[in-house]
User: What shape does this take?
Amino acid sequence: MRFLSLIVVNLRRHRLRALIGIAGIGFGVAAMLTILGIVNGAIGMFERILATDSHYLVLEKNVSDLFFSAVRDEDRAAIRALPNVESAHPLLFGIVSSPGFPVITCFGVTAEDPRLERAEWIAGNRAEFGRRLGEIFLGARAAEFLSARLGDDVPIGATTWRVAGILKTENGFEDGGVFMPLGAAQEFFHRGGVCSVVAVKLRDQSAGADFKRAVEAAHPGLIALENREFNQSYHSFRVMKTTAWAVGLCAFLLGGLGVANTMLLSVFSRIREIAVLRVCGFSEGQVAVLIFGEAMAVALAGLALGFALGLAVLAGLPHLPQFQGYVQATVGPGVVIGIVVTALVTAVGGAIYPARYASSIQPAEALRYE
Amino acid sequence: MSEAREILVTVQEVWKAYDEGRVPVLQGASLEVRAGEMVALWGASGSGKSTLLHLIGGLDVPDRGELHVCGHDPRRESDRLELRRRHLGFVFQLHNLIADLTVEENLRVPALAVGRPTAQTTARIRTLAEQVGIAHRLKHRIQDLSGGERQRVAICRALMNEPRLLLADEPTGSLDEATGDLIFSLLKELAVRNGIAVVLATHERRFAEACHRWLRVRNGKVSDA
Assistant: This one.
């Protein structure tokens, strides 16, 4: 029997307590993985919407959310006319609702928009986009949950729209969204003559700084941000990420308390046994290592359980109709490392007091009184 | 016993009280134990026999007085650890084995504390288990053993790290008379065979008289019986 096997043997002997600790950490891991996976996936999808065939985003300065940003049509035209600009596509964000589906993302775009060009057209075609009034185009997932086919009338807001095309995209937000010609969207959302953001593609990306200066000089109310710069600074992304980590850490805190409770109970019920280990030559350090080792083993098993649970949840969520295809989880190495480190730190933190208590047990006293 | 043998234990004017001094137990106890000898501490319950063993074994520290055991000072933590690991073995009245581990797993615990190689530990377990007659019980859990068998395992565990001194605190106290006699005989035989000194705390005069030397513990002091 090696030291490690003593740890395993101890957990096996107190398997119910060990399982409770494993479940505590496991649920924390699963919760954090699920929340971060969904949030990062959502952010990733949104980033890809904005970054489609563009280098820079031009938006209104100091807005808390892109939905409140307004870039006037004449400003967009002026930006498009700048010498280094290859394309400048407007995008007006909005939220529409249909009976039973209160939140559907709506994209007001022009027929030249690269999203329409890159999409796989399941029904209808891009040439029809914006040619007739009262027509909308649905993402494939939106068509599915709205049970709409080409030519159907779909109630959106106070009016009814005819489905003139269905397109499949790889982006969950787009696939679960509604595309409207820009003019129709401006009218629908009462935002005449403006868009939320202009996605700009430059001919020479290395001259991006000049473009940025030119935009901000000519249009003091606007700001031009490189896509990467936007993703890092966009307030809503930061709030979402921070919230996700905070909620996940709360779940871990509960898991940590579970480990502390489990380990403390384990130590209290083994006072005599620990005294015997000390009599047999275990040092205070070895007793502490034993308790920390048990906590770490609980954490590792909890991690395995949590990742299995969390990944199963993330795999299942996109298939739930309630999510309308908006869930496209992303679990990057940073998230995995963050969760593993948090779980291990939580387990070690939860075991500090039990380990200190265990290593301070005086053998004579424990053997005399118990 | 030969007087020329090395002195393993020296206890000089040792005092110990509990409950912040309100319960005095040892009041100037002194004794010496030489290598290879079997010494009994005989006295009534509560006379301080166990406390004296705990002090010698470094499980507790005296309030005052001098103590030297196998060249170490059990008042120092580092010495206490070294004593428990390399020089001493303990046998208690209650066997103090880990009930839901097997015999073999219990016997591996002292070897684990000193990091002894597994193969060497296995060989030592086999030798000791054969000496005390529990070789056929190595894979059994402690809870499945009789009282006498448990005490045999406890003796084996005490001898695992080849100690020079065995401290036995009423090792027959929880056994019936016949089993108690067997365990005492076994302890004595093993001590002689392995050249180990034994300090035996007992309230039974017949066991005390069967040792090489027996001392009486009364009123917190140790005297020749």
Q: What stands out?
A: The interface with chain A takes residues 50, 54, 57, 59-60, 81, 84-86, 90, 92, 96-98, 100-101, 104-105, 108-110, 112-114, 118, 157, 161 of chain B (CB under 8 Å).
